[in-house]
UniProtKB/TrEMBL annotation:
Residue span, Resolvase/invertase-type recombinase catalytic domain: 4-152
Pfam family, one: Resolvase
Name by which UniProt lists this protein: Recombinase family protein
Gene3D superfamilies for this protein: Resolvase, N-terminal catalytic domain (3.40.50.1390), Winged helix-like DNA-binding domain superfamily/Winged helix DNA-binding domain (1.10.10.10)
SMART domains in the cross-refs: Resolvase (SM00857)
Species per Swiss-Prot/TrEMBL record: Trichocoleus desertorum GB2-A4
InterPro entries in UniProt: Resolv_N, Resolvase-like_N_sf, Sig_transdc_resp-reg_C-effctor, SSR_resolvase, WH-like_DNA-bd_sf
Swiss-Prot/TrEMBL keywords: DNA recombination, DNA-binding
Length: 206
């Protein structure tokens, strides 16, 4: 039974002077040498950092893979397939594997799942690298948060307190009620109440 191949090609809009023609020609010649028939060709002209929903043919390729419309996916190189980071990339490759669709990188012979043993080794190594990347990201995030805390900075989104503080102090000193302050500033009543409480606390501390 002839193996049905699908080709995936991508050229980013930032890849000046590049086109998919050279990729397509060599991938076709490769499939001919393997004796594979080319069932589908998918072409995106988007950044590889964009996700599945943002790359039309990338998304269609996975839909067709789920319907078993081809047996093996051939792409020029892993960075032509995806540049979303190793965790996303490994998830895509694992999805193809779960769908019983093999994959092959034309310029990276080790990324070849025609051999079942090689497939398990490749996916295992990539999964390990993805796990290590996740650990490093977590460590960098924790280190960054700790550095911010040490510097005395407030984490999270600013709540507007500093913007309204002086005006609220003046209005409160002029005898405005919390309800009137809320109406004239457009702030929620509970926000006004909270800000005034914070001002009171700060005044007591100082």
């Amino acid at each position: 039974m002839t193996i049905r191949a699908a080709l995936y090609l991508r050229v980013s809009t930032t890849d000046k002077g590049q086109e998919t023609d050279n990729q397509l020609l060599q991938l076709k010649e490769f499939c001919d040498r393997q004796g594979w028939s080319i069932a589908f060709t998918y072409v995106d002209r988007e950044s590889g950092r964009k996700g599945r929903r943002e790359r039309g043919d990338f998304s269609r390729m996975f839909e067709d893979a789920g319907k078993r419309k081809f047996d093996v996916l051939v792409f020029w190189s892993l960075d032509r397939f995806s540049r979303e980071g190793i965790r996303k990339t490994i998830a895509y490759l694992q999805q193809l594997d779960h769908l019983k669709v093999k994959f092959k990188s034309y310029t990276e012979p080790l990324l070849d799942t025609e051999n079942e043993l090689v497939a398990h080794i490749v996916l295992g190594v990539l999964a390990y690298l993805a796990q290590q990347e996740a650990v490093k990201i977590s460590e960098r995030t924790k280190a960054g948060l700790q550095r911010v805390r040490v510097q005395g900075k407030t984490l999270g989104r600013p709540d507007g307190f500093e913007q309204w503080k002086d005006q609220l102090v003046n209005m409160s000193a002029a005898g405005y009620s919390q309800g009137r302050i809320a109406r004239e500033t457009g702030l929620a009543y509970n926000t006004v109440k909270n800000y005034l409480a914070r001002i009171s606390i700060k005044n007591r501390v100082t």
